[in-house]
Amino acid sequence: MLLQPNDQWRWFMGEDQHLMLDLGEDMLFSSPYLAKHLVCSSSLEQRFSVEDTGLYYRFLDSLTGMGSSAQRVQAALNGVAVARFYKPLMPQSWFFEPQADYHQPELGELIGLDLVDEQLIMMVVETSPAACVCISLSGKRLLGGSKQLPNFGAIKVMNDRLVSLDKLSELQEIRQVG
């Protein structure tokens, strides 16, 4: 079941200092994002805006075919939360392998980031010509040393680290045929 935004949805800061979304009808969405990582005050109470709705549907469209509808809604709402309220981040590209092809991502695009021994699936929630902010769709991962990236964790990376999942699927199809 996909949730349809309405004018009753409201962002607020929960008692545990996590960003929350009141969905009406006694339903609450709790994001994993703490107040200390956000650009809003602890007294936040804002409506889910028209821009939020646009982002929500854009992210849902990009997540088509991934997981259950509840997982897609969760990822889309977390994407909106990061795009709207997350503090600006400095790039942390050194965790990921550079790519031969430079990829300029689109908002909501699913991309890959190569660690030494695996590829993380991410969703782009903010773009610029040089870098993008992504949220992890790969679950909790150790990036290096003691740096952990939780599920839906936000990270900013330079665009020269991004792997287009479309190009990756095309290569896999060519390898299967050849």
Unreliable spans are: 169-178
Number of strands: 11
Radius of gyration, in angstroms, nearest whole number: 17 Å
- DSSP strand (E) fraction? 25-35%
The DSSP helix count reads 3
- End-to-end CA span: 40 Å
Task: Summarize the helix and strand pattern as letters.
Answer: EEEEHHEEEEEEEH
What does this structure look like?
This protein has 178 residues and is of the alpha+beta class. It folds into two domains: 10-85, no CATH class; 93-177, no CATH class. The protein is built from three helices and eleven strands. The strands form three sheets. Strands 10-7-6-5-11 form a five-stranded antiparallel sheet. A four-stranded antiparallel sheet has the order 3-2-1-4, with helices on one face. The termini are far apart. Belongs to the ZapC family. It comes from Oceanisphaera avium. It holds the Pfam family ZapC_C. It is found in: Cytoplasm. Residues 88-166 form the Cell-division protein ZapC C-terminal domain.
Brief overview, please?
The chain has 178 residues and is of the alpha+beta class. It has helices spanning 50-62, 69-85, 165-177, and strands spanning 10-13, 18-24, 27-34, 45-47, 110-114, 119-127, 131-136, 141-144, 147-149, 154-158, 162-164. The radius of gyration is 17 Å and the shape is globular.
